[in-house]
Hints:
It is built from 4 helices and no strands. By secondary structure, it is mainly alpha-helical. It has one domain (4-86). Helix 1 runs antiparallel to helix 2 and helix 2 packs antiparallel against helix 3 (45-67). 15% of the residues are buried.
Amino acid sequence: MPKTIDVIQAAVTSYQEGKKTLEEVIQESVVEARSACEVNGNQSQECAVAWDIVEELQAERSHRNQATQIKTSLDHYCYLHPEAAECRLYDV
């Protein structure tokens, strides 16, 4: 049986190669992390490492979501016209 870390690494590699989505990799990693904790115990190093990887993958998803958020029409306008009065920020 392959080690949990090897299975997760294979999933991450297939994401990097474009074979899987980030969401699929996260789901597989969660399953593997649960399995590692069930087999090795919740206090085991393998369990902790597997959940650390899941956390990093979820953080990556969060960062990507923030980067692709849809801007408001005001944000778009201010991007095109930063000198406009509506776009100026004042500290009071």
